[in-house]
């Protein structure tokens, strides 16, 4: 994330911070190897305060592409994947550089590395673009990780909100998604109590807690 006390939120697209990005990436690889995690989120970072987004967009994209190619080449021998995540600029972070799946897909195409993928947080995607079914189908070949939270409260999937998660989970299955679904939400209360939505989902699919199939009677 860079220097968070100084207001940084990632470095990969921030001009002049290439050396710090590479240093942070090397540390992230060490941590990832230690815990057996094959994916690393390469955070784009924020448009500098007091700067017009449109005025610096070209330079930031050039920096982002340069750093992503460097990261891909570093991660490839480790059999690791780099991920880029659009973060909504309407509610969560008005200054974040990467804010739509369309922008992320265009940058990944320019980078042209097979071990770089899209980390699609459906909370951010819904706020910026909506049209989730079409977006999941369109960007499915680029997906490296999915994250979820209800909109607009960013709580459990069964909390009041805009998204129909049983439908979304079935859509992901029908598309052939076999990766993890990260629950990046703020529990409304107790964490374990808040996982009741997952138990209910498993039961609706004929699964026991833990995701194992119930024996046929």
Task: Summarize it.
The chain is an alpha/beta fold and 217 residues long. It contains 8 helices and 5 strands, in the order H-E-H-E-H-E-H-H-E-H-E-H-H.
Question: Can you describe this structure?
Answer:
The chain is α/β, with parallel strands linked by helices and 217 residues long. The chain has one domain: Divalent-metal-dependent TIM barrel enzymes (TIM Barrel, Alpha-Beta Barrel), CATH 3.20.20.150. It is 42% helix and 10% strand. The protein contains eight helices and five strands; from the N terminus they run H-E-H-E-H-E-H-H-E-H-E-H-H. The protein has helices at residues 18-35, 53-75, 101-111, 122-128, 132-139, 165-175, 191-194, 196-204; strands at 39-41, 81-84, 116-121, 143-148, 181-183. It has a five-stranded parallel β-sheet with strand order 1-2-3-4-5. Helix 6 (165-175) links the parallel strand 4 (143-148) and strand 5 (181-183). The longest helix has 23 residues, at 53-75. The protein is globular and about 50 Å long. The mean pLDDT is 94. Belongs to the hyi family. This is Putative hydroxypyruvate isomerase. Its EC number is 5.3.1.22.
Any key phrases for this structure?
217 residues; alpha/beta; TIM Barrel; 42% helix; 10% strand
């Amino acid at each position: 994330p860079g220097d968070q006390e100084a207001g940084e939120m990632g470095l990969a697209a921030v001009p002049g911070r290439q050396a710090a990005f590479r240093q942070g990436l090397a540390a992230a690889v060490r941590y990832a190897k230690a815990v057996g995690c094959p994916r690393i989120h390469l955070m784009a970072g924020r448009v500098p305060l007091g700067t017009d987004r449109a005025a610096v967009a070209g330079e930031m994209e050039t920096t982002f592409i340069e750093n992503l190619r460097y990261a891909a080449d570093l991660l490839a021998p480790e059999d690791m994947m780099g991920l880029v995540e659009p973060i909504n600029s309407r509610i969560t972070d008005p200054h974040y550089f990467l804010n739509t799946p369309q922008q992320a897909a265009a940058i990944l195409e320019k980078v042209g590395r097979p071990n770089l993928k899209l980390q699609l947080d459906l909370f951010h995607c819904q706020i910026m673009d909506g049209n989730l079914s079409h977006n999941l189908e369109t960007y499915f070949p680029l997906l490296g990780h999915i994250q979820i939270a209800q909109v607009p409260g960013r709580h459990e999937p069964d909390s009041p909100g805009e998204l129909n998660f049983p439908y979304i989970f079935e859509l992901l299955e029908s598309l052939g998604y076999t990766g993890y679904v990260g629950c990046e939400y703020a529990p409304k209360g107790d964490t374990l109590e808040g996982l009741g939505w997952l138990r209910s989902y498993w039961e609706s699919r004929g699964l026991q807690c833990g995701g194992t199939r119930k024996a046929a009677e």
